[in-house]
Each structure stands twice: as C-alpha cells, then as structure tokens.
Amino acid sequence: xxxxxxxxxxxxxxxxxxxxxxxxxxxxxxxxxxxxxxxxxxxxxxxxxxxxxxxxxxxxxxxxxxxxxxxxxxxxxxxxxxxxxxxxxxxxxxxxxxxxxxxxxxxxxxxxxxxxxxxxxxxxxxxxxxxxxxxxxxxxxxxxxxxxxxxxxxxxxxxxxxxxxxxxxxxxxxxxxxxxxxxxxxxxxxxxxxxxxxxxxxxxxxxxxxxxxxxxxxxxxxxxxxxxxxxxxxxxxxxxxxxxxxxxxxxxxxxxxxxxxxxxxxxxxxxxxxxxxxxxxxxxxxxxxxxxxxxxxxxxxxxxxxxxxxxxxxxxxxxxxxxxxxxxxxxxxxxxxxxxxxxxxxxxxxxxxxxxxxxxxxxxxxxxxxxxxxxxxxxxxxxxxxxxxxxxxxxxxxxxxxxxxxxxxxxxxxxxxxxxxxxxxxxxxxxxxxxxxxxxxxxxxxxxxxxxxxxxxxxxxxxxxxxxxxxxxxxxxxxxxxxxxxxxxxxxxxxxx
Length: 497
Description:
mainly alpha
C-alpha cells in the first residue's frame, strides 16, 4: 500500500470521481487535472487534505498544489483511480478545448516563451551583473569594480559572453521554441534562427545606432558608410526589379516568432506534396529557401514594424507626463490578477521588444515589484496564522519562493485563499509601480523578479537603483503592513484562530 493511497482515494472522490476526469498528470509540485465538469470538484474539502497546500484553475486545468512529494502521490492516485497516466500535452489538449479563443492564443504564446525563461533569466542576470561591475560606485572612490579588480574583469568576460549569447542570438531560441510548439522540424527552426542573425546581414544593433543618429540606413547600405565600416552593396539583395536591404534581427522576438510559424506551415505544405523518397532532401531545402525569402521580403520587415508600434504604444502609456502614473497604477494593480489567468506571459515579448528597441525595459521592474508585494503579504500571513501549523508552513515556503520571483505558491497558498492579503499586495504593487515610473526606472532585461535578486537587473546608472529600492520598500512594506490592518477588518471573512 502506498503512503498516500487513502488520501488519493479521498481526492478522487472530491474531484468528482473517475468519470469526471478527462485527463490527469503532474509537474514538479502540482497535480494537473482536465475535469469534465469543474463544478463537481469540492475545492474547500480538497484544500483540507493533509498533503494539499492549495488549489487553483489556470488555462482550463484544475491544479492541486502538493509540493515535492507530488510524484509519489500521483503514483498512488493512478493506482487507486485506475486512470491511465497522461502526458502534460494530453492534459493541455483536453483543457484547451474548453477555453475561449483569447485564452487559447495566450496559452500558445506562453508555451513558446515559458521554455525560454531559464535562459532569459540567466542572460538578464548576466547583463545586470556586468552592468554592476562596470558602474562607478561611491565606496570605490567613484571607480568601478572593472577598474579596480582583475577578478571583476574575468567575471565581466563571462557576463558579456553569456548575456550576449542569450540576447544577441535570441531569434535562435525563439525560432526553436516556436517551431517546437507548432510541430515543425526543430533542427530547421534552429537553422532559421541562425539565418536571422547571420553575419551576411547588417547587425540589428548597428542598424539601431544608425537609425538613432538619423542616418538613412538604406542609403548607407547602398553607398557604404565609413563610420560603421559598411561596404557599398554588401547588405543589399538585388532582385533586378527591386533592391532589398538585409538587416539582421538580433534580440528581436516578433520576426523570429512569425518566421517560425510560417516555416511550420510551409514545411507541412511541401511534406504533403512530396514523394516519400524525396522528402529528406527536398523538403528541408525548399522550406528554408521559401521561408528565408518570405522573411526578407515581408515577414521580417512587417514584424519589425509591428514591434516598433508595440514599443511606441507602451512608451506613450508610460512616458507621457500625467498619463504614465495612470498606466503605472493600472499595471501595478492588474499584473497579479493576470498571473492567475496566465495572461502575464504576454509581457515577456513586450519586455524583450522594449529591451531590443531602447536598451532597457520599464515593464520588468513593475513585474518584479508586483512579485515583491505578494511576498510581503504572504510573509504577514506567516505571522498571522502561527496557530495553524499547515498554513504557517505553506506561508513560509511561499515567501521564500516569492523572494526568487515564483509567486504562485504565495498567491494560491495564502493570498487568494484569504483574499485580504491579496488586496494588500495589489495596493503595495500599485504604489511601488507609481514610484518606479516616477523615477523612470529601467531594467536591462528580465531577471529574477523577486526581493532577493531583482535589483541586479536594474540599470546602475543615474537614479534607477535609488528609484527601484524606494519602490521596493513601498511595495513590500505596504503589502506586509496592510495585511495586518486588513486582517482586523471586514475584509477578513475568516478566523485567525
């Protein structure tokens, strides 16, 4: 008999029985159900089970938070239920059939970017650490670590190397993940990404610098530019009837994503119409040729322009005097609710696009502040529920997770469970966002969005660090304090006993 067999039987009963389960699997900490009828799940009773730390519904999946023992619990659950083990993809497909169109689109976007998060976080931290090592610091007499330490110069080599690889070659990652999501040939996806950053095209960073100086880029490519070492005609493709400029897509997201999607459909088109004996040779060859040509001709320029429009919209909302504070309030008070729905993943593309276009993003600091606010609120519940040993344990572990940017345990294990900590966190997040926006705080890119390491991704020049730390103190302090205040009001509908 398994350790969790009795509890697994109870969970089976509380989710509505075997007939109410379309599919079930597990991840690192959670059981993931695609239920036929979610209303049949007895949520309160499930949350009362000894091993369960919380529940929530996301992307059409009813998820039960178990912790590190989820693998053993899952085995016992499969044993007592008689349900066949399913893959995560099976559960996603079963759950997605019940989702509206917008949520399905967001789910697709999330599945492209979520696998890239470890690399993006590592790259963002490397850029942040490199920025710190090169910053002029008062305690070093106005000098930087780079100037005063040989070890710092060694470390700086690695930060530039790794950070540059992640973001300079970002289209390779995005193309691979996009093609993987849309069931294309992943190796061809990698090749397509490499094509987008090939040295045969003008580097996107050089293009950005030239455009920023008001240089006519097409004219410079046709006739050459001595300042940037550009040979006349080197980055021009002459089709006879027109001449196309060859500009790379380093650090770009949308061109890589759109090109990857197009490649999958082009590959499937030729796969269906090619004899089996010729597929291995003909399909990859023609797929890359056609996708490459369409990318140079239409997909790339269109996606780059779309990205520029996206940046312009966010810049208008967050840079316009007066309006920017409204934008900060709205973002600070709505980001955490977006996490619940899964829509927050859309901001990964926005952050990357902002970083590529202007060398920094003002969105990521607001995301980090929202996470920091959630950590302040859940830490308060640790002290408020000391008599409840299970909740005390959940709140403490959730606080540590939130300090490293993982807020789901805090949200679903405490803050949403009692609601008043969630309200406190929204207020703290909104105030922190206003302060951050007021100081025009910028991050180099995305990083670890929690109290422990978020500051490393913030620019060290000017008042960025000062503004971010003031916003952090406000977000964490208000969330922590207001949770205690709200616990004594009608917002707390439960008991602290």
